[in-house]
Design a protein that fits this description.
Alpha-Beta Plaits, alpha/beta, single chain, six-stranded mixed β-sheet, 2 domains, about 40% helix, Molybdenum Cofactor Biosythetic Enzyme, Chain A, 12 strands
């Protein structure tokens, strides 16, 4: 069975509006390129107890979860310690992460024309970026070598993958995780979404039709997306069905038949392969 995928975005800068989140749309795109879908997403600020609670739910979910942000070494970076608390384990310096961080510090010193001083206080502090929950594995970072980390969930096949908040680092790391561990689920079953613009109707009028379709077509989901100020169609409802490509055509035919029964005013159709 294909696992469910979730996303957690951490950072006060997102909730305050100082930064606009780019991860949600990109993770949906990355998953979609592999025939996968995002099941849920959650945002949380830089509040350690809240992060711990969110991560505890993620570890208990059995889902594959990507978590972005808060894995640096400044006082407002709580994700690493919160992950350890959520799992009930100690946070320890990961030996492979330490080696990678030290390698990056040596490179940085060479680039600046300086000698590398491993015992200097700021260099010792940077090692905190490699303190992960006990038992974690690392996620390689192709941008600057400072790794992310992964922790198994309490239910299989669940796991939480922690990556930086910077898109230039996070997105290649998400792709690496998927291509390394989840390729067996890529494009297992084609999925289709087929919808139509419905004018001059209310969702309450369409609800009985939607309920009947879901009863008659197990495995297919029926959705309605109302708009009041669409730039092209104005006030309307996008009504459609989505699911495995071999099941959608029959459900779509019944949806159209139901709409024609009460002379619905229909606009253009839309088909999206997923």
């Amino acid at each position: 069975m294909t696992p469910l995928f979730g996303l957690i975005v951490i950072g006060d800068e997102i909730l305050s509006g100082k930064r606009t989140d780019k991860h949600l749309a990109k993770v949906i795109e990355i998953l979609g390129e592999r025939g996968l879908t995002l099941s849920w997403a959650e945002y949380v600020g830089d509040d350690a107890p809240r992060i711990t609670a969110v991560l505890r739910r993620a570890f208990d979910s059995g889902d594959v979860v990507f978590c972005t942000g808060g894995i640096g070494a400044t006082p407002d970076d709580h994700t690493r310690q919160s992950a350890a608390q959520a799992l009930g384990v100690c946070a320890v310096l990961h030996p492979e992460a330490r080696a990678l961080i030290e390698e990056r510090m040596r490179e940085g010193a060479r680039e600046r024309g300086e000698s590398y001083e491993p015992e200097r206080s700021d260099n010792l502090h940077r090692l905190n970026m490699g303190v992960f929950p006990e038992g974690a594995s690392i996620i390689p970072n192709p941008y600057n070598k400072i790794p992310g980390f992964a922790c198994k969930g309490r239910l299989m096949p669940g796991a939480v993958y922690f990556v930086p908040g910077f898109p230039v680092m996070a997105w290649p790391m998400v792709q690496w995780v998927l291509d390394t561990f989840y390729a067996r689920w890529f494009h297992l079953a084609a999925r289709t979404e087929h919808s139509v613009v419905v004018f001059d109707s209310q969702e309450a009028q369409l609800t009985p039709l939607m309920e009947n379709l879901e009863r008659q077509h197990p495995g297919v989901s029926v959705f309605s997306l109302p708009s009041v100020d669409h730039p092209v169609h104005g006030r309307h409802i996008e009504l459609g069905v989505k699911g495995p490509s071999d099941l959608v055509p029959a459900a779509w035919a019944d949806l159209l038949a139901g709409l024609h029964q009460f002379d619905a005013n229909l606009g253009p159709e839309m088909v999206r392969e997923m």
